[in-house]
Amino acid sequence: MMKNHMKRTLKSALLVVMGLAVNATLSSAFAASLDDPVSQRGEEIYRTTCSNSFCHGPGGIAASAPRLAARGFDALYIAAVTANGVPDTQMVGFANALSSEDLNAVLTYVAGLNGITNPQFTPDNPLAGLGIEVANPKRIPLAGAEQEGRELFFDAYDKGLARCSTCHEVEGIGIPVAAPILNVPATVRALRNLDTAAVQTVHLGDEDMPAVILAQGISGTLFYDLTVVPPVMRTIPAEVPLSISEGSTWEHVDWIGAYSTAELEKVLAFLRAIRR
Amino acid sequence: MTRTFHNLCQHSRHLLYLFLLITPPSVLSQQGALDGATGADWPSYGGSQAAWRYSGLDQVNRSNVHQLRPAWVFNTDDYGDGLTSTPIVIDGVMYISTKSNWIYALDAASGEVLWKYEHAFRPDFVKPGSAGAFVQSRGVAVSENHVIMGTLDHALVAVDRQTGREAWKVYVDDSRQCGCNILSAPLIVKDMVIVGQNGGDGAFRGYLTAFDTETGRFRWRFHVIPGPGEPGHDSWKGDSWKYGGGAPWMTGSYDPELNLVYWGTGNAAGDFYSGDRTPDGRADEDGINLYTASVVALHANTGELAWHYQEVPRDVWDFDSAYEVILMDREINGRDRKILAHMNKSGVLFVLDRTNGEYLGAFSTTEVSTWITGIGENGELLGRKEPKVGETVNVCPTPLGGRGWNQMAFSPRTGLLYSPTIEFCTDITANDQEAREGNFYSSGGFINGLPEGRESYGHLDAWNPVTGERVWSVPSQFALMASILTTAGDLVFTGDPEGWFLAFDALSGELLWQFQTGAGHRGSSVAYAIDGKQFIATPVGWQSSLNAGMVSALFPGETFRSGSAMMVFTLPEMP
User: Fold this and answer.
1) Domain range holding B217?
2) Which of A89, A149, A228, B94 has its CB 3.0 to 4.6 Å from that of A266, i.e. a possible disulfide?
3) Which residues of B touch A157 (CB under 8 A)?
4) What is the 3-state secondary structure (H, E, C) of A132-175?
5) What is the DSSP pairing of strand A220-225 with strand A232-237?
């Protein structure tokens, strides 16, 4: 009466053999496409971003995501999907994540996996002329102090939670606790002594906390509590007594202490550069 | 039916581990011994904070389990990638999270919805090319006033237990930068909620963070990888500490008496190549890439490291040690000891003294194991078979694990650990990939297959953690990807990919009852009681992403049914 849930026939050994066979076919059929430096660079990008057990697998042989090799894709299709992703799937767009040079390289590599040896993307703007529109413009290339400032702004290692992007979203990265940065202070001194009128004081029970109010309505109050980092988004229902007063004891300077003056100069240079 | 016992010698079991633990099984009887059983509630991810996944309820037992019948079924309406969570049950209310980060509060007696919460994601939160593309939710934690869940956009969100309204939300990090997200259930420890993150195979520096359960305010952070100037930093070469992974991606445990939090940490990244992260001249025995692939014990109040035990120094197999840490008190060589049992993806189960991290013993739970030839007296890995750059090396088990993240259970009545084992080997080809912050950093690829001569992919085993003896083993055609529940009714419950929910005799492994639930099992079943009536609940719904890609090699030619339902069983009313 009980089904033996353990019994079933097996096709396993086959699988190993098949896996290896696919691998071998690929490397021989398309080895030629790896001769040029662009495809080589593309293969490198592919390995760091597209190929792993959870995505397309080494050489495009498929892993958790579909196979990319020998699918008969044309160059336009490869570019469009790589740039903007596939809606409602885990395939996200890479147009903003990769530099033009790297995007060109990886497109060339995947084209090679589909037997297109000379796809002719425009290297400094591989999507140009293909009629592909990218949702958000990519990060502009920066150099020197401006680029260093960018790295400092998002620095998860030396600055950790004390980094600027803990409270500011810039170039699509960071937590937007504060409103988008519109005015870049002229000097580090001005940055430290910012007038922070948007920070108010929430009185809740017997506690006062510095807060950026996001919304107030009949159902309650939504705000960022700035007592510690990372700031906490709180929702206090209307039935809980709460009052808000202008101003606070919160000062911007206390939260950017992880940065030296020289570093803040660079961060300001970065913020100015992306506004140009 | 007759059970098929597996012949231990049938396969290439060439590992002979040294057993320092030679005392026969003892009955847990000491006064004041740690009690990890649950009662009417199932309050924590692992049942209790000791992670036993053991219910002290015995109304349903070996003699009447065959009478179990459905009490209610709840479909979550969130289909696609199965229901992988462990429900939490407190005071007759069941809390479950679904793959899109919805939370339901259900009347645990009837399945009626009390409230529903849907997390709102930030736009574009998945970093291209990162581990952050995983979609799952393995469960919530429940504090006095809140139900707390980690999210796919790397926030921790707390909703009011009574109303389901959002109370606080904190972005633990920006998923678009770290390429990480949170799939695991958080752990409540006193007035704090502690959570890790997914991202073990990413160029990222993993950590655990504790927040105040009431306000969401930051309390402490423990970086798995020590920063410059901290002890252990010198176990990393150059800048590799920034990208070394180690994300603690499952849920830890807590010993209130020692006030220590225990957590398993992820593997070092890049996964299969250690050349870029190994300091010149440093020996594996000194610990390389600390504190990845380790069990760490942290002082609960501060998050400071009390001790660590690195199971896989300089990991090159993606053998995460991120799995659950099971705390128990056992008698060893005539002495009552506070120990922990912990298995990593290699399928090797380590037993440590949980007061100080002292190595007590280890044994392999997989029958086929070739990654090492044995384990030395002090727990050192002998005869490491390492992947090589540009060459293909076959090792067993695979980076998928000698067991998945689905968890074991421990019964104090039988003194046995119940574990679903996977027998699988892999061809790994390593490369010396360059790290990019937040991106996948696997340094290689792998192709899996069954070990030679084997016909089935898994088995459900009962292990004595003190002697390393396998007391019984039941083969399973397919790898079992659901956690184990054991109860004081001396039952062991789990589900299989084909949709069978199964009850075994905890003493003998005999299959006593099974029920076809209609979809594969990837979650974790629990037991609870309401007004003296015991219920057994199991999530149903295969993780459909396992039907494709690397993991699908475990199930060649098969696609199991997805779905997302909670299915609850009970005994019929007495006449």
Assistant:
1) 7-120+130-570
2) A149
3) 205, 227, 242
4) CCCCCCCCCCCCHHHHHHHHHHCCCCCCHHHCHHHCCCECCECC
5) antiparallel
Instruction: Report the mean per-residue pLDDT for chain B.
Output: 92
Instruction: Pick the catalytic residue from B201, B276, B315, B318.
Output: B318
Domain of B244: which CATH number? 2.140.10.10
Q: What SS3 state is found at B178?
A: helix
Residue B176 lies in a domain: yes
Distance from CA of B434 to the nearest CA of A (A): 7
Number of domains comprising chain B: 1
List the structure tokens of B73: 């079924």
Structure tokens at B421: 């084992």
CB < 8 Å to B205, chain A: 156-157
Q: Say if B315 falls within a structural domain.
A: yes
Residue to mutate among B127, B230, B440, with most A CBs inside 10 A, is B440
Determine, yes or no, domain membership for B2.
Answer: no
Q: What is the mean pLDDT of residues A85-89?
A: 74
B318 is annotated as an active-site residue = yes
Q: What is the predicted pLDDT for the residue at B366? A: 97
Q: At what angle do helices A75-84 and A100-113 cross, to 10 degrees?
A: 130
- Pick B135's closest partner by Cβ from A15, A90, A175: A90
Q: Which of B180, B442, B544, B555 to mutate to test the interface with A (most CBs of A within 10 A)?
A: B442
Which tens digits make up the pLDDT trace of B163-200? Answer: 999 999 999 999 999 999 999 999 999 999 999 999 77
pTM over 0.95: no
- Interface A–B counts its CB contacts (< 8 A) at 188
- Which domains are present in chain A? 2-113 (1.10.760), 147-273 (no CATH)
The Cα–Cα gap between B271 and B445 comes to: 9
| Predicted confidence band of residue A138 (pLDDT cuts 50, 70, 90) | low
For residue A156, the chain B residues in CB contact (below 8 A) are: 173, 177-178, 205, 437
